[in-house]
Write a structure and sequence with these properties.
- By secondary structure, the protein is mainly α.
- It contains eight helices and two strands; from the N terminus they run H-H-H-E-E-H-H-H-H-H.
- The protein has a two-stranded antiparallel ribbon.
- A hairpin with a 5-residue loop joins strand 1 (71-72) and strand 2 (78-79).
- Helix 1 crosses helix 3 (40-66), helix 2 packs across helix 3 (40-66) and helix 4 packs across helix 6 (145-158).
Length: 191
């Protein structure tokens, strides 16, 4: 039965250029559902159902053999080839895609910078540092903002660059000052 199958299949696929191994593989696949005493009509029907697969195999083999091989230089290393190059019809879209990716990255960087600047401004305002003293100040990306701003404020106070009312107290409520005075008084030793 397999001999008949092989003979019919090779006749139908003789102009496709399939190797004997490829034909043998197709025979094994096609013969799975057939009994040893299958009729000629059953074998022919099964062969006809495998012809599209044979064409697909032949197309794949042709595609692989006609693909240009990457050229090698003297050291045996590959020099690029055409595999990474986009087809002509895709090049305008590829340029637009690259432009959009660049624009997206720039917008994300600008948004991150604005967000960080707003965070710095809010923390400086909380510490009582005036906006005009923060205009030209910048911090490293990985800097601890709370520590850096506290150190900056201390330098301003030390060098008398902040107004006296902001230099010693960040809060302006009388209750806070009284609470601080009471805490200081309680920390004194009793004699």
């Amino acid at each position: 039965m397999k001999k008949k199958f092989r003979k019919l299949l090779s006749e139908k696929c003789k102009d496709m250029g399939l190797t004997d191994k490829a034909l043998d593989d197709l025979v094994e696949i096609g013969a799975e559902g057939l009994a040893d005493d299958a009729s000629d009509e059953d074998i022919a029907a099964k062969v006809d159902s495998l012809v599209p697969y044979a064409k697909a195999m032949q197309g794949e083999i042709t595609r692989k053999t006609q693909r240009p091989k990457p050229q090698s230089n003297d050291e045996g290393e590959d020099e690029g080839g055409n595999e990474d190059e986009a087809p002509e019809w895709f090049k305008p879209f590829q340029k637009k895609l690259t432009d959009l990716e660049t624009e997206n990255a720039a917008l994300k960087a600008e948004k991150a910078k604005t967000t960080r600047q707003a965070e710095i401004s809010a923390k400086a305002k909380k510490l009582g540092i005036p906006d005009y003293l923060m205009k030209r100040v910048s911090f490293a990306e990985d800097a601890d903002l709370d520590k850096e701003l506290a150190d900056y404020k201390q330098e301003l106070v030390t060098n008398n660059l902040m107004p006296k009312e902001q230099a010693h107290e960040t809060g302006s409520s009388k209750e806070a000052m009284e609470a601080d005075a009471k805490a200081w008084a309680e920390s004194l030793p009793n004699k």
